[in-house]
Write a structure and sequence with these properties.
single chain, about 190 residues, alpha+beta, Homing Intron 3 (I-Ppo) Encoded Endonuclease, Chain A, GCC-box Binding Domain, three-stranded mixed beta sheet, 11 strands, about 20% helix, elongated
Length: about 190
């Protein structure tokens, strides 16, 4: 998705066919964030740093107020969100893409549903798919049911499938119905069964 230390210059971590106008925002370690032209003047007036893991970076600004350091995340700064109960979601999942079209206010649940990262994905598998050892098939499901006594949402079971791709397509179709535009899909929109 993005490369923290890209030797080819600003914005190339977002792809060569990037369709939107953008302004690069240099970060402290050689990485870059991007913002819309209308936000560039106020954003570039500040110094920005990377924060997060290598595969999940964000840009933040630190300033000292009355002897105390406060941090502002770039995506919240762009949308002028100061209420800590309001989340800002990156539609494409890239924390350094702070173009206005890519940012949207969200609930904590919507924000978490748009995250594509999981143990299964990192192992090269699909979101919402796991191996069911008892059935010896691939199982599809997600946490989206009612909240249980442990405070977590119950798992919604979608069935077992002979191959992981079929289970992933079942997950995508259900995720689109339940989570709408915030669903992180295994396949591009329009390809879910």
């Amino acid at each position: 998705m993005h490369t923290p230390h890209n030797p080819h210059g600003p914005g190339t971590q977002f792809g060569t066919n990037f369709p939107h106008q953008w302004v690069p925002v240099p970060l402290n370690d050689g990485a870059w964030a991007i913002v819309s032209p209308e936000d560039s003047e106020r954003v570039l007036a500040l110094t920005w740093h990377t924060t997060g893991r290598d595969d999940d970076l964000y840009a933040r600004h630190a300033k000292k107020i009355a002897g105390r350091v406060t941090h502002t995340l770039l995506h919240r700064f762009v949308l002028c969100v100061t209420d800590p109960t309001v989340f800002v979601d990156h539609a494409d999942g890239c924390g350094l893409n702070c173009l206005r079209y890519n940012l949207r206010p969200s609930t904590p649940r919507q924000n978490s549903e748009n995250q594509a990262f999981s143990k299964n994905l990192r192992a090269g598998k699909f979101k919402g798919v796991s191996w069911n050892a008892r059935a010896k098939k691939w199982e599809a499901g997600f946490r989206g049911g009612e909240i249980g006594p442990d405070g977590k949402r119950r798992r919604v079971y979608l069935g077992v499938f002979d191959d992981p791709e079929a289970a992933a397509r079942a997950y995508d179709a259900a995720a689109l119905r339940v989570f709408g535009e915030f669903a992180a899909l295994n396949f591009p929109i329009g390809r879910a069964a």
